[in-house]
Design a protein that fits this description.
By secondary structure, the chain is α/β, with parallel strands linked by helices. The chain folds into four domains: about 70 residues, Roll (Ubiquitin-like (UB roll)), CATH 3.10.20; about 150 residues, Nucleotidyltransferase, domain 5 (2-Layer Sandwich), CATH 3.30.420; about 140 residues, 2-Layer Sandwich (Nucleotidyltransferase, domain 5); about 90 residues, no CATH class. The strands form six sheets. The chain has a seven-stranded mixed sheet with strand order 8-11-10-9-12-14-13, sandwiched between helices. Strands 24-23-15-16-17-25 form a six-stranded mixed sheet, sandwiched between helices. The longest helix has 28 residues. It is globular, with a radius of gyration of 23 Å.
Length: about 500
Amino acid sequence: MTVRVRFVSEGKTAEVEPGTTIAQAAAAAGVNINLPCGGQGRCGKCSVTVGRDIKKRVLACQTRVEEDTDVTTQKVEERNKVVGVTDHRSIPVSDKTPVSRGHGLAIDIGTTTVAIEVVDMDNRLALYRATGVNRQRDRGEDVLARMQYSADGGTQELRGLVLSTINDLLHTFTEGTRDINAVCVSGNTAMTHLFLGVDPSPIREPPYIPIFVKAETTGKGSGLDVSPDAAVYTMPAISSYVGGDVVSDIIVAGMDLESGTSLLIDVGTNGEVALGNSEMMLTCSSSAGPAFEGSKTRSGMLAQLGAIDGVRIDDGVVRYTVIGGGEPKGICGSGIIDLVAQMFAAGMIDRRGNLTEKADAKDGVFAVAPNVVITQSEIMDIMLTKAAIYSAARTLVRSMGMGFSDLDKIYVAGGFGNFINLDSAITIGLFPDVDRSKYVYLGNASLGGAVNYLLSESARSRTDEISYSATYLDLGSDPAFYDEYTSAQFLPHTDRGQFPSVHF
């Protein structure tokens, strides 16, 4: 016996067993329902309407159908569009020995976005680059949610979502891609596992070891729209929570070649940090969360047309810049960091992140622009995120008996790292308050590392060396981290001496 679930808005129907959730029925019918928390019933964003005459709102991930049911879904945000495509065929990349001949494909699988670059390996030129939203977001905003979704039987679905993201990005290029005969995939450990259809959820449990550190397959085996015989490599990971994307960051920064000690901060969902030089490399991960990527804020969005990317507050008046100009549709990560810093400097929030009378907020909601707001709870999420990243960096540095002032350089990596206002990041306590000349922005170094892997023999040998020799510090078992984390949950910090240039 089966029951029929009809999705009215999409004109699609699924016949499923009684007791099937609406979300599962939607997947069977080919209907996309957004499940940011991985179907755990926490976020409330999979709300749908059931019934024909008497209707009620329910959560698709929690509601099971026992009889024929009509379902009306909300209008789903368009997550599949390409964020950017660039033709840069005249830019030289490397003069080292390529991994192969013909065209190569570098892939960065981020938790939020996916970026790809096609390179001419014969002439060592970058050809095209494209970036799009990782469709896995519809099954979990962060890594832990996707691990849970995978553990619940969704591994192959998650693999299919990221493959469709990559292949659709490939198809935006004017030239064919079937002549691509070498691929390098860079991403955190969980994303790399899911790319190959391997359930990453066991790495959440002791002994916290990945199923694999690196892998190699063929174009046909990978599911990518490249040459069936293409060699497909994954960047080697360091640990369960420090993946090949951080190895890429280190390669691009050149930290492993330097005599001086440098710090690397990857501003992303996982908040990885590395400290090292040519003699040693120490890494950790702080599980920062997606607050800076817009997914946990009501008005948050990626850095696309219509996003507020910069904020100033003068005499209580909010001024902002919008990507592409025009009326704002939301606010992206760089704008969020600016906003919190400016609100703090203007006295609109106190050191604990609480809205003050100066903010003139209504019911805990501060209006940034027409239809763009930030709430009290969102400010608290941002403070927890910045505290996780800063305290991870400070714990790592202090474990070596050093202070931030002892560092030669501080590298900032991550998709939107280049666009972060350094003074704003220091004002909120995200980055260390040191000589600004020490900071070096790397941009999307995860993608850059994958390009280097394809074009440079020395880069390939360095990736293996870093993966094998780097030490992972487990912050979860380090009491010093919890002390640092607690102290960092203020603006900019409980210890004012750590932020001498921030006046408040």
